[in-house]
Amino acid sequence: MLTTAQEKAADQAACGPVIPHSAHHDKKASIAGLALGSVGVVYGDIGTSPLYALQASVVHAGKIGQAYEAGIVGIVSLLLWALFFIVTAKYVLFLMRADNKGEGGILSLMALAQTAFGRRAAPIFFLGVARAALFSGDAIITPAISVLSALEGLQVATPVFSDYVLPLTIVVLISVFAVQRHGTTRVATFFGPIMAVFFVVIALLGAMHIPDAPRILRAFNPFVGLAFLFGHGLLGILVLGSVFLAVTGAEALYADMGHFGRRPIQLAWLVFVLPALTLNYLGQGALILSNHAAAANPFYLLAPRWALLPLVILATIATVIASQAVITGAFSLTRQAIQLGLLPRMEIQHKSEMQEGQIFIPKVNRILLIGVLLLVLLFRSSSALASAYGIAVSGTMVVTTALAFVVVWRMWKWPIWRAVGFVSIFLVVDFIFFAANLLKIIDGGWVPLMIAASSMIVMWTFVRGNALLAEKMQRDSIPLKDLIPMLEKSKPTRVPGTAIFLTNQLTSAPSALLHNIKHNKVLHERVWLMSVRTEDTPRVSAANRYEIHKLSPDFTTVTVHFGYMESPRIPAALALLRKSGHKFDIMTTSFFLGRRTIKASPNSGMPAWQDSLFIALSKQAIDATEFFSIPSDRVVELGAQVTI
């Protein structure tokens, strides 16, 4: 048995550095300090929504004639109550209680729901995949609309800059994605203070203009917003789709819970971010009421003439921070999807020795950059992009609420009537916002839907192809219970050392083992069959890192467990095995890997186009040597051609 100190050291070696969350932070770190850090990482997206949310919402207000002023108050009321109900009630007070060992996010919620059922339920798995796919649309649109809306402030300063907004946006976006390869550890230390300054500034600008039209304070009455919504038919629904832009960063509160902890994120929202956003939206509304022409760009027109250019610079920096948070989230979600078998293995570079979450995935970075630039060139303005924004996020909120129902019902053990009654309140609101955003499909909402559909097809094809491939390999393989007696009779030449064969199936002989016996006609003194499993938990402790079963004096099976937020470093896991008393020398250990060349078959079980897509995806996967951090000089690869 390991001592407590040994377990701690072994766990650190096996897991590597982990993302800092509330249980891992130094005890001296104050909640206020963590709250400040969360302001920079968690609230970048929702914090920059005032740049375009109200502006996009009042575009339709010109159609309400003499009721224009009442309409403005109603729109601001809808904005405020969207923040109060969706962000505060749903995410901050309710969903953040549904954590998976301190971690949040859709895959953590999906894992909780799977645990509640005690098995991998297909509907839950589908919802999780759908949510991950919808995030891909959000990850591409957010940097585009955020940076573009910030730089459009230059046009407010002077029309001379009008022709330079688009080129500058492209330059800023390329720069943001270019610096990803260097990591964001150093820059991230400034995120919190910069965003704190941004929130203070927008709060002051808003508070300055509330006296321009004090009647804007009627927006605190929810019935004013409801009267506007239900009193203007289709127009009210169209406005509601734009109002939703104010809450597009709400998912980040839940997804980033593991980085800072529940209480700091809640404190930052309730005490600092929410009041700042409220004051700014009220100020924008009051400005429009006192000067209808300000509806063209109410955010920047809040500022005095002399402060306009500094505000543009500050807003641009804030949108870069918001974009950075989304890009980092895309890297994290991609790694989790790879761990769960939804995507092929990709190169994952670690950019920090202290933070496991500081990763860089070159292929994802390139795809995001290309997608963002195409969107900017296609839509060319934040108002046009606003039509494409929101539909993916509203869809993710529906999925999140549906999975939350499973957790509340099955894991929290609420009576079914109580769970349905409580969760349906949020679900109805989510569906209303989703329906409102569906009206924007023709104007640009098709973009995130197309991206999400493409992502789902890719993940579905990869999962389906791997399942068919596993079935075929299982049919064609030799059970270990039959192979071991055969080898004891034939007695192949034995060579010193340990051979580790990586395999997905521990009941059958890996193809690399059979090829080694067939072609090299030798067998090592000790043969380990190792399988790497990804669990439905963020991380796995040292005590549960591995399972060992002795099949014979020469054959041993080892199952190594990793959480879906961990990097599967096999050498670190082997170090833990050595610490627990299993003697072997890494320098006399050889890793045998099978390299498969996949060919299409007329009877594969998938359409021809899906066969081709699966083969193309499989070719994109990096070597297992690199993915599992195995020393390359200890690896032997044996190839085989497989038809699917």
CATH architecture of the largest domain: Up-down Bundle
% residues in beta strands: 5-15%
What is the CATH topology of the largest domain? Amino acid/polyamine transporter I
What is the residue-mean pLDDT, rounded to a whole number? 84
Global Rg: 27 Å
Structure description:
With 644 residues, the chain is α/β, with parallel strands linked by helices. It folds into 2 domains: 4-463, Amino acid/polyamine transporter I, CATH 1.20.1740; 477-643, no CATH class. The chain is 61% helix and 10% strand. The chain is built from 27 helices and 8 strands. The protein has helices at residues 4-15, 31-41, 44-47, 53-57, 68-94, 106-117, 122-151, 153-157, 165-178, 185-209, 222-231, 233-243, 250-255, 257-260, 262-290, 298-301, 308-339, 362-379, 382-388, 391-411, 416-438, 441-476, 480-490, 511-520, 570-579, 608-620, 624-627, and strands spanning 349-350, 359-360, 493-502, 522-535, 546-550, 555-563, 589-599, 635-643. It has a 6-stranded mixed sheet, sandwiched between helices. A two-stranded antiparallel ribbon has the order 1-2. Helix 24 (511-520) links the parallel strand 3 and strand 4 (522-535). It starts with a helix and ends with a strand.
